Amino acid sequence: MPSLIDLTLEGRKVGQHGPWPRVVVDAPVWTFAASELAHGRWSLLGLWGEPATVHMAIMDGQTAEIAVVSLDCPDRTFPSVGRHHPPALRLERTIDDLFGLSAQGSPDARPWLDHDRWGVRFPLGDRIDALPTAAAYRFLAADGDGLHQIAVGPVHAGIIEPGHFRFTASGETVVRLEQRLGYVHKGIDGLMTGASLERGAQLAGRTSGDSTVAYAYAFSRAAEAALDLVVPDRAVFLRALLAELERLANHLGDIGAICNDASFTLMHAHCGVLRESVLRAAGAAFGHRLMRDIIVPGGVSRDIGDGGAETIQATLDNIRLRFPALVELYDNTASLQDRTVDTGTLKPPLARQYAAGGYVGRASGRSFDARRTLAYPPYDSLRFDVPVLSEGDVNARVWIRIREVEQCVSLIDQILSRLPEGPTRKDVPLGGEVREGMAIVEGFRGDVLVWLRLRNGLIERCHMRDPSWFQWPLLEAVIENNIVADFPLCNKSFNCSYSGHDL
Amino acid sequence: MRKLLFESVFRQPLTERAPLPDDAAVAELATALGQAARRRLGRSLSIREVDAGSCNGCELEIHALNNAYYDVERFGLRFVASPRHADVLMVTGPVTKNMREALERTYHAMPNPKWVVAVGDCARNGGCFAGSYAVVGGVSEVVPVDLHIPGCPPAPTAMLQGLLALLERADAGAVTP
Q1: Parallel, antiparallel, or unpaired for β A12-13 and A22-25?
Q2: Could you tell me the pTM of the whole model?
Q3: What domains can be seen in chain B, in order of their start residue?
């Protein structure tokens, strides 16, 4: 079996790409990589375009080696990866929408983010005017006696992001769910081009609001990888503190919200109170409840405020006091368990195939956690468990979150007790003419990947891949044969990002 | 469960005192509500929220309005599932081109009188996404806006202040002949 390193020898290595190698390969090597993905030897981490190039980030699951392979496509086509490896399909459709590079041999050539509303086609490639009349989007067919369709969205009943779900049901049972996303596409990749690092960090922090810390963290680490910049120790620890507070707040909110979708509002109310306490502590310590714009290239933009550490500590003490009773309540309420156990089951092979990150992957036997597998500082020196289950149902995804709440509390404790003194920010050098960097950071939802190329200190191209890209398609799979009424429950247990996906 | 419920009988409620209505918002609304609010609504407004392209940060804080600390329903403010039931359309985000039609249709599905509250910095003028090929701009480019609540995202208290100002004006309008 060829290792990832062997593959990288097959191509022309690009200088100034950190910390993992990037190689320019030819079409046969590109296709070989696709078939290795299909055989499950490697995992697809990302697939993105440039006006005349496509890039693919892959990871060897055994060794945690990572590489980026690039293919020049002067004739505006490239061999389809999705043809061999379905997780790449939506990414390829996006590359076609944005850059006009088409995946040859792809079984699904429909547009994805482009709803024919932008007035242009291929906005980031060779722009042309949009088609005069929008073609209707073709949903996939489902045939059978007595099937009916339920169309939901883009505006949903609750306070949530927009997206369209097309259910085909037989009575109460879902036969097929097809998602149609892209409604909140803001063109962030386009806005990044030509932006300064400062503006880039601002945009990154507004890609998915619930992961604002994770995105700013990944963006900053990618920029620092490109510039060979080492941030001060205190900033390294403060970043992890911010990331864990974000994870804690989101998991607490999710646990309550999942139970709420099973009409168990008591959990929702109590978890909501704990979530609010974390946001208030974050606001007191860092001046912003969601901790936006704190992580910047070079370090952090502000230090923890006076009394901030004590406020956070008091919040943790309260969670330690109150959370166990809620866990017990969840575990001992049969009517709630009846809804969550065996509902929306994601089989481990599918989680592995899609390299699903976060609680979606870890509830289905995939142990990947960027903090552990890639062990970026300060996580290489902190003690924590990565909980993994294999049942893959809504219940397992709740339990992963419960265990991660406990881990978060312990991690924040460790960080606060070991917070080094010293500066919190370093000046960011302009760097050489061209510098490239990539980073993967574990957000609450899973691994956020950021790749960028800087030219004379400005962003020439930046691509951000939300963990939802590899989770949304799995939601389509797990809802099959469940009842329509369980969809909100399944959906909330995934809690994929629309904005992070649509960009 | 019984223990948790029992405790809540004896514990002080977490709900906090209402903030004063935001002065700036009251001034902004004074003109907006003059005519329309003459119809009696009572001290109650139903709100339909639409994310027209936000990063979901604003949604998180709107959600927080429903937690025990802010408890927005005690003011008669209720989030409803259908625009047909709504008096207020609360819109977040820069309006994306892909969401423009959905926003317009939601607005037109609401009965009169109705108000539009734009939440967050993006909703004013597109914020940091202004100028993108995929973004229309602020909410007022698509539907008429009566009140804007700034912030990225606005804290729940700021949203509460804005909504209370709206409620007060709607109420005042209702009793003035």
Answers
A1: antiparallel
A2: 0.93
A3: 42-167 (3.40.50.12280)
End-to-end CA distance of chain A: 36
B135 vs A203: CB contact, 8 Å cut-off?
no
Comparing CB atoms, the residue among A203, A253, A289 nearest residue B155 is A289
> What DSSP character marks residue A483?
B
- β-bridge mates for residue B48, sequence order: B89
C-beta of residue A461 within 8 angstroms of C-beta of residue A192: yes
Sequence-distant (6+) residues with CB within 8 A of B108 are: none
**ipTM of predicted assembly, 2 dp:** 0.93
Q: pLDDT digit string (tens) for A19-32?
A: 999 999 999 999 99
Say what the alpha-carbon torsion angle B59, A165, A246, A318 is, to the nearest 10 degrees.
80
Residues paired with A168 in a beta bridge: A149, A176
Instruction: Please report the domains of chain A, with CATH numbers, ordered by start residue.
Output: 4-129 (3.30.460.80), 192-467 (1.10.645.10)
Residue-wise pLDDT for B136-153, tens only, equals 999 999 999 999 999 999
Host H or E run for residue A284: helix A265-286
Contact B132 A183 (CB under 8 A): no
CA distance B75 to chain A (A): 18
User: What DSSP string describes A206-225?
Assistant: TSSGGGHHHHHHHHHHHHHH
Q: Count chain A–chain B contacts defined by CB atoms under 8 A.
A: 147
**pLDDT tens by residue, A377-405:** 999 999 999 999 999 999 999 999 999 99
Please report, as a single letter, which amino acid is at residue A153: G
Contact at 8 Å (CB) between B137 and B126?
yes
Q: What is the distance between the alpha carbons of residues A462 and B134, in angstroms, rounded to a whole number?
A: 17
Query: Which residues of A are less than 8 Å from B1 in CB distance?
Result: 266, 329, 332-333
